[in-house]
Amino acid sequence: MVSTFRRLTDKIMAQQNDNSFNWRGFWDRAVYEAKRVLRPVQPTAVPGLGAIPHSDGTAFRVWAPHADKVFVTGPFNEWSPWRAPLAAEGDGFWSADARQASVGDTYKFLLHHQGELLLRADPYGRDVAGPQRNSVISRDEFDWGDDAFQMTAVQDLVIYELHVGTFATNAESQVGAFQGVIERLPYLRDLGINAIELMPVMEFAGDYSWGYNPAHPFAITRTYGGRVALQQLVQAAHAHGIAVIVDVVYNHFGPQDLDLWRFDGWHEDGKGGIYFYNDWRSQTPWGDTRPDYGRAAVRQYIHDNVFMWLQEFRVDGLRWDATNYIRNAHGHDGDRGADIAEGWQLLQAINAEVQAQFPGKLMIAEDLQKNPWLTKPVVENGAGFAAQWDAAFVHPLRQALITPNDEGRDVTAVAAALAFTYDQDPFARVIYTESHDEVANGKARVPEEIAPGQADTVFARKRAVLGAALVFTTPGIPMIFQGQEFLESGWFDDHVPLDWRKAEINSGMRQLYRELITLRRNGFGYSRGLLGAHINVYHVNNDDKLLAFHRWDNGGAGDDVVVIANFAHRVIDGYVVGLPCPGIWRVRFNSDARTYDASFGGHGCPDVIAAAPRPGMLRLDEMPFFGNVTIAPYTVLVLSQD
């Protein structure tokens, strides 16, 4: 018997990733012999799922409703296929205590299903190691010290989206790590950034990925440094006054290296088994792996993952990838037959609980359907997100920026994008011209889209800056993508590191972004209106391709802000626009200044004196006062009063 089990153990160690191996005849004899010596096993009294270390070993619990038997195997039992059975608890759960198992040990579950043997990583595993992708017993022991960080109000938030693998590489590795992001935090703080958004960092297949193919949703990829390194990044970011938002993916899992697939052997119609829909609802653009939101254990799995980020990593928010594919099988509105009611209910339930337990944490939806119900409160039957990425802003603005000829630019569409809100809440949207989606998948950085292969030309730069200036002066939560502040060109590729040489070559651009962010956050003390909820796009001239809008919080000196944008390739001199208040309006920002780029025109605009119309004159733009401005091609002016 000993030799039989030794041979079987050797097979487990050799075949850990080969689930197609036919063990049946070999296993039957081993099980027959093992039954003579196995004692009845008792379920653990320790709560939780996965591997839970405690004072007397480790408790293991797994959901496998169709398994006939379940064992846990690892070096603590010499990878035995029979020494550590789990007891059936009911409702498909299995558990037991293993006294020999301790923190740092690797393990897998061995499941029997109708004569088939399945060696699986732990769905709740906090870490995976080695080419066999074994789960690792982990304990959360990170010392957060006196970290009591509170994220700033959404009105003051400026988000910097980054991809850890390309953001900060070094000479030793072409793949970036959390430590590299830590080293760049002073740079981001000095730029004015107060929130970073990390593209997904859960364990994925291979070393190179955008991260939207999570294979082990509870494990942090060792490629970037692993669990503790991410906690160190969050702690360091908080020390710099920077919040951390993490992208999470619940519209699909995998599909590569996915042990969740047919986890306990059961499946229907060739689909994925217990964690997934096993009908037409399983299909997504990223794989046939949409989670089954109707199963209580799957809903709990996603719930527990959300709260892991908030509790164990103390992140300040989550950006949910492609929520439109959670609530609708085809990912768009107007297709009621494809709605997934339990997906919508999942969003509501988790957001309601987050708001109750972690008020102030920012839940962001990437839905891109311009649906106001995503950001309506749950008590009003909304999904309860605080904000959503705004397709109503990015698409019209990018179109106006990249259109080759001035006559084709639709300033009217831009004006509508600036004034758009979800349910009258201007801060329920994240606004941007560049994100990971907008600079890849057949698209590129804004300067590259404007002038393919010639992104360094002056008008490619100027129109890219025009778009950025509107991001920071429009109501909403502004976001930029890594390298945008120094005009990184081309398109995003997870194999190509960010070119930090451009940060010095285009240092004037960094200054421009720093000044825009300071204005946005009222750092100079004379642009409080950019923190306010109010906007009036009062001047829209689609013939001359010029618009102007008024921003304010409470109004008055130091508060009222007027923004004027020229979408045309010509200097407009002596242009008359309405103004909300009399007196001197000082030019606080002129994107044509040569301090930002020596190739810019350097056309100045004197401070503007606002006067009342003379008797008999019509009020311009329905404003009580008016003034004259000079504005350079593809330029934004920002005006305010002392």
Explain how this protein is built.
- By secondary structure, the protein is α/β, with parallel strands linked by helices.
- 24% of the residues lie in helices and 22% in strands.
- The strands form 6 sheets. It has an 8-stranded parallel β-barrel with strand order 10-11-14-15-16-17-18-19, surrounded by 4 helices.
- The mean pLDDT is 94.
Observed structural traits:
eight-stranded parallel β-barrel, 3 domains, TIM Barrel, Immunoglobulin-like, elongated, alpha/beta
Distance between the termini: 89 Å
**How many strands, what sense, and barrel or not for the largest sheet?**
8 strands, parallel, barrel
Give the number of domains: 3
Low-confidence stretches are none
Please identify the structural class as seen in this structure: alpha/beta
- Please report which band the strand proportion falls in: under 5%, 5-15%, 15-25%, 25-35%, 35-45% or over 45%: 15-25%
Q: Choose one word for the global shape.
A: elongated
* Mean pLDDT over the residues: 94
CATH architecture call of the largest domain? Alpha-Beta Barrel
Question: CATH fold name of the largest domain, please?
Answer: TIM Barrel
CATH class of the largest domain: Alpha Beta
Q: What is the CA-based Rg, rounded?
A: 28 Å
Count up the helices.
14
Spatial strand sequence of the major β-sheet: 10-11-14-15-16-17-18-19
